């Protein structure tokens, strides 16, 4: 009995360790092939102004668009109770003010977490006959976002932002990796997302 218990514990520890290592590895990648669109995962906004985490993602998406990675930038994310603006609309306004023309922007104002947002983007892709995307989010969130996007029918790579609060210190990075490890394993086991804002949950 003790051997069986020990084997189970060891298997769980190996699964957690290998998942954390995969998240760390994915976070270090930067794939930017020519694609149908650049998809920016939403994060908090305050009265239409993107938070520092969201702004870092948007600035990276702007750079990718300027480099010709894709002709369209998709912003995604709904709004919390009491908010006047969705994250998608706040992101679109930010990028339009930064110089991207309106016909190169698509706001998908749906989703209270990453899973809902990716499903909404997948539906928008299907309507337009698109298939390929470069995802922009924080490094530690990239692997889970990729998996959810693929499950929503998209062909994706990720180009994580290297700026913003999520990557400032090693302590912050370690905390994000632990959280993402738990969130990724939960999704693979149940098909559900953790509660949180788009780009977090």
UniProtKB/TrEMBL annotation:
UniProt cross-references to CDD domains, sorted A to Z: YdcF-like
InterPro entries: Cell_Envelope_Assoc, DUF218, Rossmann-like_a/b/a_fold
Domain of life: Bacteria
Pfam families assigned: DUF218
Cellular component terms per the entry's GO annotation: plasma membrane
Keyword field contains Signal: yes
Limits of the DUF218 domain: 36-182
Signal peptide (from-to): 1-22
Keyword tags: Signal
Protein name: Uncharacterized SAM-binding protein YcdF (DUF218 family)
Organism from which the protein derives: Geodermatophilus tzadiensis
């Amino acid at each position: 009995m003790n051997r069986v218990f020990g084997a189970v514990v060891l298997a769980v520890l190996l699964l957690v360790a290998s998942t954390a290592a995969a998240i760390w590895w994915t976070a270090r990648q930067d794939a930017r092939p020519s694609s149908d669109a650049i998809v920016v995962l939403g994060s908090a906004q305050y009265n239409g102004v993107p938070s520092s985490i969201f702004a870092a993602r948007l600035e990276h998406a702007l750079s990718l668009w300027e480099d010709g990675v894709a002709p369209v930038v998709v912003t995604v994310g709904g709004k919390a109770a009491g908010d006047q603006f969705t994250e998608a609309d706040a992101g679109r306004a930010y990028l339009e003010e930064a110089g991207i023309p309106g016909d190169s922007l698509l706001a998908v104002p749906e989703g209270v977490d990453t899973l809902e947002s990716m499903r909404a983007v997948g539906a928008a892709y299907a309507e337009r006959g698109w298939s390929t995307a470069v995802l922009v989010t924080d490094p530690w969130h990239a692997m889970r976002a990729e998996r959810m996007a693929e499950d929503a029918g998209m062909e994706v790579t990720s180009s994580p932002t290297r700026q913003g609060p999520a990557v400032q210190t090693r302590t912050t990075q370690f905390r994000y990796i632990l959280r993402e490890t738990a969130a990724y394993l939960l999704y693979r086991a149940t098909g559900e997302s953790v509660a949180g804002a788009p780009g977090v949950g």
